[in-house]
Specification:
12 helices, mainly alpha, single chain, about 210 residues
């Protein structure tokens, strides 16, 4: 459609104009509503954008990307519950959508849903494999859940992939401390300091790709 062509150019007024013409010709054209949503979102017409994506979903409620789009809008509207519900639907409709799974796990973590976050991370790992980021992310969730020994186990796996990584060692030191393994905690901190003296305390948030 013309709206798609102008969307690739990020010419949002033309997207709105052409999508509106398409809708006038066929009021059941869900793609036209989705494109007009995108343009209105980009031009900060959020109420109109929400109306468009709601209409797109009502016409094509099996299109996972529409739920992801609306979740992104809900994020900007600070509607966390609605955002999370749409991300759940998006990954249920398309379990191979890595971007939706990543957003889903980030939201679950940020909102403190540790059990569901761990499950979602496991699902994401089934799609793209288990790397050091996966183990670190899951360790963060275990730590927040209050199960430091599981966090230690995951961080140990991560260190098998990235031996000597200071951030992983610092995180494992913290988990070992919480698990009562004081000597191992001190050993991890000593190793981290030798590896990168300036990195102590610089632990990042959930690193889901």
């Amino acid at each position: 459609t013309r709206a798609r062509i102008y969307g690739a150019r990020e010419d949002w007024p033309e997207v709105i104009s052409n999508a509106t013409r398409a809708i006038e010709l066929d009021q059941r054209d869900s793609e036209a509503y989705a494109w007009r949503f995108t343009a209105r979102f980009q031009t900060n017409e959020l109420d109109l954008a929400l109306a468009d994506i709601n209409r797109a979903i009502s016409l094509s409620d099996n299109e996972s990307s529409y739920f992801s789009y609306r979740a992104h809008l809900f994020h900007h509207l600070d509607k966390r519950r609605e955002m999370l519900a749409d991300l759940r639907t998006a990954v249920a409709l398309d379990p191979t959508d890595i971007k939706a799974w990543s957003s889903f796990t980030q939201t679950l973590y940020a909102d403190g849903h540790w059990d569901e976050c761990i499950i979602a991370l496991n699902e994401l790992a089934e799609i793209q494999g288990k790397d050091s980021r996966f183990y670190f992310a899951r360790a963060c969730a275990w730590q927040q859940k209050g199960v430091p020994r599981m966090a230690v186990a995951d961080l140990t796996e991560a260190l098998q992939v990235k031996p000597g990584d200071a951030q992983l060692l610092i995180m494992r030191a913290s988990s070992n401390y919480d698990a009562g393994e004081i000597e191992q905690s001190i050993a991890d901190l000593d190793t981290a300091e030798r590896a990168a003296p300036l990195s102590l305390g610089q632990v990042q948030s959930l690193p889901v790709p």
